[in-house]
Protein 1
Amino acid sequence: MNFDFSEDLNLLRDQARRFLKDRCPPAAARAVLEGKATWDAPLWDAIAALGWMGAAIPEAYGGLGLGHEGLCVIAEELGRAIAPVPFGSSVYLATEAVLRHGTDAQRRAWLPALAAGESIGCFALFEGPGNPAPAAVAARVAGGRITGRKWPVPDGSTAHFAIVAARDASGELGLYRVELAGPGVVRTPLKTVDPTRDQSQLDFDAAPAERLGDAPFAWADLERVLDRAAVLFAFEQVGGASVCLTMAVGYAKERVAFGRPIGAFQAIKHKLADVYVANELARSNAYYGAWALSTDAPELAVAAAAARVAATDAFHLASKENIQTHGGMGFTWELDCHLYYRRSKMLALALGSAPWWKERLVAGWEARLDAPRAEAA
Amino acid sequence: MDFSDTPDEAAFRAQVRQFLDANATLLQPGDVAQRTRYLEGPEALARAKAWQKTKADAGYAGITWDPRWGGRGGSPIQAVIYQQEERRYNVPRGFFEIGLGMCIPTMMTYATREQCERYVRPALRGEEIWCQLFSEPSAGSDLAGLRTRAERDGDDWVINGQKIWTSGAHYADFGILVTRSDPGAPKHAGLTFFFLSMKTPGVEVRRIKQISGTSNFNEVFFKDVRIPDAQRLGPVGGGWKVSLTTLMNERLAVGEAPGPDTNDAFRLARSVELDGEPAIRNPAVRERLASWLVQTEGLKYTRFRTMTALSRGQAPGPEASITKVVSATKLQDIASFGMDLLGGAGAVMDAERTAMQAWFQEALLYSPGMRIAGGTDEILRNILAERVLGLPSDVRPDKNVPFNEVPRS
């Protein structure tokens, strides 16, 4: 039994935390929130210099080859830092889609630039309100050109290209790469609850599109793409939730009311104990997800859904109770509590909302009950 | 990360399985008979004693204990492996957990070598059962507020007072006992700790009927009970520190609250109809199953993280309280939910007629106790908040006041 990260990855975590503490304090997200930039491009370049975008990309394609456990460690730290960069879109989604579904030629052509951070991708699935569903993909490709409207697309105005879910002339699902600076693409930034991250509408009108891979691509493959990303998002969420708890505990020790630090009152104590419990359960589920992701285990669907649901719940709870613990000050623009509250909801929705993931979890568990696997208790 | 055993662990697990296969039967899915019902009566006790002896003879009782006292001298990870494997079998439970989980570890820390030689092995072999005489009518969560008096008289101590919620006192042979020896000292400083035979003159046990209808715990009255000073554990006035040893061991011993779990809720939801379709198809049912599944899985992998820490030689801390806080409430909610699935007939508690032998109904009635015994939900949240998160302690107006000047109800 070894259910923790290796010494090397714990070192990576320490380095990443120190780097981001210095280079990406909450002021970085705040600068974007206040409109000083649409994202933190210098931070992106600094992260690229460390090689993080290529953490899970094999060395043959220009990556570090640390495997997905390494990427999980980085994701948690970026989540702690609420980093205003398109890392999730480009790395957890676009890069992973290319890695898993691209032809070897496509991987050779695209992955080195992704690993170096020179090329930024995003993932365009949604076409308006609703959770992921086969019937909700209407964008069409004919003769190598795509037409349709995708929104919201995280980092759609920031990325160089999008991996777009669309159907061909015969209605078959596929993933397509579309250059966003090319012809036939209109990008419109959307107003959202978390302006520290770009979300946009992409309108395609006969824009050139290249299909990923030459193998059949089914809805289950798309779900697998989302499952893999869900584990990495869960680590970001766990990271964010854990910062919220630290902030709330710190404030509860300092703030005095009725002649005592408010953290001495059980109303505060029990609330924060509940946040701690939710965070620990989320972390444990995320670790199982990390194992399933890095070993490409058949349990990935269940592990990813459990990680996603637990982390979404934990970050929501931690970010709202952090505001509550701070009282009126927590509700001010000036304090950082709202940055995490916003990010928590944005991450909760980015891959489909909690009800959809809960349904996937229960469906996956039913399948497992029907085919019990020998597994350690 | 990986879930596989090291070669040594795998060899140990194989040995354990061989032993269990030869001496017990595997539980089948949905098998509810022995798992949670509070076992009662001389027959159940005899079965449990026989099983404990079999375990001890094979070297699977006291896995981490010193071989001098009949233990195996094994590692914490081996103890966990044994528990994991034993859980899958239908074996008697419920009689030895307190003695072997809490009382004897306290003895091994504080008793003399001769006393350990006398008491540890018979307890390990199931020949003698121990109980823990801690809570009192006015000292539950506030254990250090206990009032049972111990007064020195020559080489003896004379005990007067009352304990309550003492599990198994009615069949226990020995008990560990915390008393107030100095009412003039602040409450934590005036306590002294002993062990005694439950057959000592002046000890009277009265059973308490619980809301589940069973009587698993007791009131224990002490009237001029004489205990030799040689049976004192720790220094005079040092009883609080000894009690903490016991309670630390209790925290290590807790697992998930026993009863119908998330998988059983799935099974029930698949086997009954609700509003004309299998209950499992109902979106409200699925939503709740998802929430419990996330908790169950989260606890399971939290245990795996603890096991990893153990195998790296680190000690588990108060984080282990998470399991009890989460699982006791979950059990109560699952019990109630299972009954909801049966609609208007949910309240019927008739093993012949009710789904899964009325397991959910039974659990509804005993689960409130799980949120109280061994540290209430509220005390456990205090522990997490103070010891893990480092929040300041609550105001304790009685802390540095002589105990006999503290207001009482």
Protein 2
Amino acid sequence: MAIRRGTIYRIPAFKVANGLLVLTNDEWNDAPTQELSGALVFSDAGAGRTLVPDLALYAGPLLQVVKAELKDAIVELAPAQLAPIEEAITEILALDDLLGQPPRAPAVQPGVIDYPRWSNIYYAGGRVGRPPERKRYLVVSHDQYNRAMGGAVCVRTTTSERRGGPTLPVLRDGVTKAVCVMPTFFSSHSVGLRERPQPSQVYTPDMRTVAAALREALVLPERHSPSSP
Amino acid sequence: MPGRQVRLEETVVAAVHQNRAALGFAPDAPDGVILSELAREAIQARLEAHRRKERAALYSSWAQERDLSDGAGEAMRSAIQDGIA
């Protein structure tokens, strides 16, 4: 089955969500890779969810899923139906601020920090691979969203020696690559908030690089920057 | 070379005149505006096509990346367990 960006697919393994709106670019969807990313789709409104115009559906957090789990295509969205979802994701990832001139980091949130924070790196999910280990994830959603949602959108980092490139950028340390084609939401209790990898944070120039890669990976439209000199 | 360039421009302008409406331009749109718009769009389309090829080649080289396939399904499992999906 050819998987296409902008189409909602049914995923039988889901218990709460109705399906997944695929948002990764079609070169990635066509590649012989195991996973892709998209927005979870629900039949109810809720925090962090965006109404899909003309459908009684709401798009929620980004999630990385196994391609083989995608079953029937439910509906293919028109550009006008995709636009508000793309806009919401652009805002959650603070792309306009980071890609503006000058780049601007999202606002810090005052209060107790009991959520994964923007630009920080954490171990997340269960132990995988041989030897079993938790993977490192960089938080790419802004802290207002992270606090409200009790979790964050993250991208995997890897020190694989394969070359980096569009949507898999190499960060300034020259070693770490951010896998921006698979952003995914983790709830706070699936993220190791205390035991942290090193380095545990990256800074605005790297986050700008990641923002550009996310925009390309998810084919999010460019807009005029709201940043002011 | 200049003669060849003039012939090329004449060919393009003639094609624009014949297809002005089909190309989506107003009947009184100046040739210069039409030509620069078409050139800009053609360059953008070529660059995007190049970028798509570049991405496809890169993704093929990452398809067997062990570090990524090790964790396949983990984010989805976590989301289902946590009641998100």
